[in-house]
Design goal:
Blueprint (H helix, E strand, L loop, with lengths): L4 H10 L17 H16 L1 H6 L4 H21 L14 H17 L14 H12 L9 H8 L23
Helix pairs in contact: 2-4, 2-5
């Protein structure tokens, strides 16, 4: 049994044999080295970085995690400057899925509740476009429930002792 999201993503890609639709390969052989490299940057600095920021217990640890989050977002914004649709070009990969789950939660949870508030995702024009592209992938938008995301994150007593769930932000321009 395994509940690590990265491992589950790999299992979904190849662990079900004939039961799976193998027309979409999220971890293609020719891109594996690039996928692994970008995952090795995104996971500690952004996926886990938002949690290190939100749950920091010292100013020093908060500042380091905060810097990691925003330097990673800045690098991702630069990466998309060539007009590519996805992180590695025009092919959707597991790196995109791993990035997506953090980006879709960024403005509604991490920006305010986790104190990742230097900039909103909307303030990154290319990452904003990227998130909209990810939401346009068949079936992806249907996996996102903003109210559920907010209810879950804002129920964390250590971060929100009164349990107040904000009304915003407005996510209508994402179709959410």
């Amino acid at each position: 049994m395994n509940n690590e999201s990265a491992d589950i993503l790999r299992m979904l890609n190849s662990g079900f044999g004939d039961l799976a639709d193998n027309s979409l390969d999220l971890y293609p052989e020719d891109l594996r080295a690039e996928i692994d490299a970008i995952n090795e940057s995104i996971y500690p600095r952004l996926n886990n970085g938002v949690y290190r920021t939100g749950f920091a217990t010292t100013q020093v640890s908060y500042q380091q995690a905060f810097n990691d989050v925003f330097s990673q977002l800045d690098e991702l914004e630069q990466r998309l400057k060539d007009g590519r649709t996805f992180l590695l070009g025009e092919r959707l990969t597991e790196a995109d899925i791993r990035l997506f789950v953090t980006l879709v939660r960024f403005d509604v949870a991490y920006h305010g509740l986790f104190k990742c508030n230097l900039r909103r995702l909307r303030d990154y024009p290319l990452l904003d476009r990227y998130l909209k592209s990810m939401l346009a992938v068949s079936g992806v938008r249907q996996t996102v429930n903003i109210d559920h995301i907010k209810q879950g994150y804002y129920s964390i007593k250590a971060l929100n002792p009164n349990g107040i769930v904000p009304v915003g932000p407005d996510m209508a321009d994402y179709g959410l």
